[in-house]
Amino acid sequence: MKKVLVAAVGLSGILAACGSAGIAPDGSGSGFIQEMRTEYKLGNTFVACNNTSGNGVRNAQTQVGVRFVLSGGISTVDVQLKGVNTSQYDNNFKATFKNEELEKIDTNTYRALFNANSTTGPLLPQSIIVRPAPVKVKTVTASNQVGEFYAALTVNTGTASYSFDGNGRPLGYRVPVYSNCTVTGETGENV
């Protein structure tokens, strides 16, 4: 029975990484997306909002946090937010981080933090401000889902490059985008 339980736990770990893990072709590094968080929560789901009432000067912004785990060599990491339904704005939302510029959460866990601003177009994210001051997560009501986005990472180890993203289904890390949101409270959590 113990062997079956151990196998099941191991298999669940492998399945959890499907669609969001990568390995350098020369074995010099590997990584996976651990979590996507935003400034807004609808129930238990992190969401993005094009227009938000009740959030002061941040009514057209959504802070997005991408947590990822990397092992092995790290020279640079490209972090990009990509649309699920359209690639029209994908090239606007890419930031390159040198190893020393990455925000380290613990031994191998890192976070990239963005402010996505919806004032320059109809879908988030439209323009990105890298390394903003972290904000607290807010609960919202939302209407009119207009799309989704996910994170795509490319890691350069110094000897090879590899990519992975959060677009996998059913275990991916997609963030739904809504036209209109209203802030109803604050959770106390950081993005």
Rough outline: elongated
How many domains would you count in the coordinates?
1
Low-confidence stretches: 1-18, 122-126
State the secondary-structure class: mainly beta
Number of helices: 1
Radius of gyration: 17 Å
Share of β-strand residues = over 45%
The proportion of residues forming helix, as a percent range, comes to under 10%
- Integer average pLDDT: 82
- Counting DSSP E segments of at least 2 residues, the number of strands comes to 13
Distance between the termini: 40 Å
Largest sheet, in brief, is:
7 strands, mixed
Helices and strands, in order, run as HEEEEEEEEEEEEE
Give a brief outline of the structure.
The chain is mainly beta and 191 residues long. It has one helix spanning 2-17, and strands at 21-23, 29-38, 40-42, 45-53, 61-72, 76-83, 94-98, 103-104, 109-117, 127-130, 136-156, 161-165, 175-190. It has one domain (2-190).
Topology (elements, then pairings):
Layout: H1 2-17, E1 21-23, E2 29-38, E3 40-42, E4 45-53, E5 61-72, E6 76-83, E7 94-98, E8 103-104, E9 109-117, E10 127-130, E11 136-156, E12 161-165, E13 175-190
Parallel strand pairs: 3-11, 4-13
Antiparallel strand pairs: 1-2, 2-5, 3-4, 5-9, 6-7, 6-11, 8-9, 9-10, 11-12, 11-13
